Amino acid sequence: MNPYWSALARELKPYVPGEQPRIADLVKLNTNESPYPPSPRALAAIRAAASDDLRLYPDHEARRLRATLAAYHDVTPENVFVGNGSDEVLAHTFAALLSQEKPLLFADVTYSFYPVYAQLTGVRFETVPLDASMRLNIADYRRPRGAIIIANPNAPTGIALPLADVAALVEQHADVPVVVDEAYVDFGGESALPLVKRHPNLLVVRTMSKSRALAGLRVGYAIGDAGLIEALTRVKDSFNSYPLGATAQAGATASIEDEAYFQARLADVIRNRAEMTVGLQALGLEVLPSATNFVFARKSGFSGGDLAAGLRERAVLVRHFAKPRIADYLRITVGTPEQTARLLAALGDMIAAAK
Ligand code: PMP
Q1: Minimum-distance ligand 1 atom for the alpha carbon of 154
Q2: Do residues 29 and 316 make contact, with C-beta atoms less than 8 angstroms apart?
C-alpha cells in the first residue's frame, strides 16, 4: 500500500468501465455505444468550435446548450443542469441531493456506479431486490429512506418501468428526492420528464452518450425543479466550474437541433434490437424484454463468464458482470446488422462445439 494515499483513496472500490481495446476487426458490443456516427451537424459544430477561441474559457453556465435543452424538453433553462457525462451529473447528484440522514434506496441489480458514488460521497444506502423476473416493484420502497434513485429503463436488465409506476413512486415519496436515471429512455422507455413540473422532488438524468452517439464528447444533463438544479450547481461550482469545454457545448447543442437524424438512428437501433433478439432466441438464449440499446441474455447450461470469454476469443466483446443474480447473463450492445451476424455466428459456433 502506498504510504501517501488518503484514507478515502485506500477505501474506494472504483467502478470498472468496459474495456476499450484495440483489436483488429473487433465487434465491440460491451459499453452500449452507438454503432452509428453522431449527427453530421454535431461534428460540423465541433470542428467550427475548434478555433482560436479555444484560448478562452468556455461559458461556465453553458447558456446556449441549456437554453436549447430547455426548449427541446419544454422547461426553462433554470430547470437544466449540464455536466461532463451523466456520470459526473450523477456524482454531483449524490453529493447535492442523495446524501440524507436516512439511507438512499436503489435496486440490488442496477447501474453498478451507484454504490461507488455512495462510497465517494459518504452516502449510506440500502439495496431493494428486484423480483424474480428482474422487475422493480415500487411497493418495496415503502420503508425508511432519505432518497431514492432508479435507472429507467434499468441497466443492465434493459427492463422499463411504466410511467404510471414512476409517477406513483415520485408521489409516494414526495418528502424526499427521487432521481430517475434515463440514460437509455430514448430506445423505448417512457420518460418521467412530463412529471417534473408538478413534482419538486423529481430529478431526471439524461446522457448524450447512447442515443446521440456522443459518448466521446462527454455530455450529460439533468432536468428538475429549479431548487434541485441550484443544489447541483452549488456542488459543481465547488468542484469544477467548467466541466464542459467549448467543443462539447457546441456539439451537444447541434445534436439536439438535428431531430431528423436522431430519430432515424433511433429507428435503426430499435430495428436491429428486434433482429438481434430473434437471432439470440433462435440459438436458445433467454432474452429479457429490452427498452434500451442492449439486451440482457443467458443460455441455460452455459456460464456467463465462459460465454463472454469465448466470444472475446472470437473478437466479439460483450459485458459480463460476475455478481450475484446476474452472473449467468451477458449484456450485449445492439450493433449493426453485420455486427449482429458476427455475434450470432460466434455464439452458434460455441454452442455447437459444446454439444
Ligand atoms: N447511467 C447509466 C444507467 C449508464 O449505463 C451509464 C453508462 N455507463 C451512465 C449513466 C453514464 O453515461 P455517461 O457518463 O456516458 O453519460
Answers
A1: 3
A2: yes
